[in-house]
Design a protein that fits this description.
alpha+beta; two-stranded antiparallel sheet; 3-stranded antiparallel β-sheet; globular; about 35% helix
Length: about 180
């Protein structure tokens, strides 16, 4: 899949990445510009099993994915083409350890115009999609699941806090964090 993404990008222009969760607060790549951005047709959802980054095979955690429907506010990062060719494989290793995301080129609306950015989406048909989870399931996952980058609880809270500092209010995430904290 990385080869297909590289071919679609072509390497002739700067590379845009759409960040909607941990990439906002821990991008781990050099960027020349960041813009608030909105994508339409996808929404941020904590509905993807994580058996590496935020959980284990026996105690899977959760990470965000972009699911079809609605819209999502986040950040578009511009990587200069000279650096992007080296940054993309590192980003790929982080975001695609098990190849669970569907990388897509999406149109991002920004205050200074539209950009085409690489985004990591999740199909509802993916075996990594959780489907509907009960409040008790979320409580158990937030309590017990931890992977190579830490716990699901910390990941969700850090994402929520960073979104708030950027003026992005994710009501669904706020409600979920309040419910599982009771």
């Amino acid at each position: 899949m990385l080869e297909a993404v590289l071919r679609e990008w072509g390497g002739q222009t700067d590379l845009w990445i759409f960040a909607y969760a941990s990439l906002i607060w821990r991008p781990e790549f050099e960027f020349a510009e960041e813009r608030f951005a909105t994508i339409h047709g996808y929404h941020r959802a904590l509905k993807m099993w994580s058996r590496v980054n935020r959980g284990t095979p026996t105690l899977p955690g959760l990470v965000f994915g972009l699911l079809p429907g609605g819209s999502c506010k986040g950040v578009a990062f511009r990587l200069p083409k000279a650096h992007a060719i080296d940054a993309l494989p590192v980003l790929w290793e982080r975001e695609m350890p098990n190849g669970v995301y569907d990388p897509k080129w999406l149109r991002c609306q920004t205050a200074t115009g539209q950009v085409r950015a690489l985004a990591f989406t999740l199909s509802k048909r993916s075996p990594s999609h959780t489907g509907v989870l009960s409040e008790e399931a979320y409580r158990q996952i937030f309590s017990d699941s931890c992977g190579r980058y830490g716990s699901t609880r910390d990941y969700a809270q850090l994402t929520y806090d960073k979104l708030r500092t950027l003026g992005i209010h994710d009501r669904a995430l706020g409600k979920l964090l309040a419910r599982v904290s009771r």
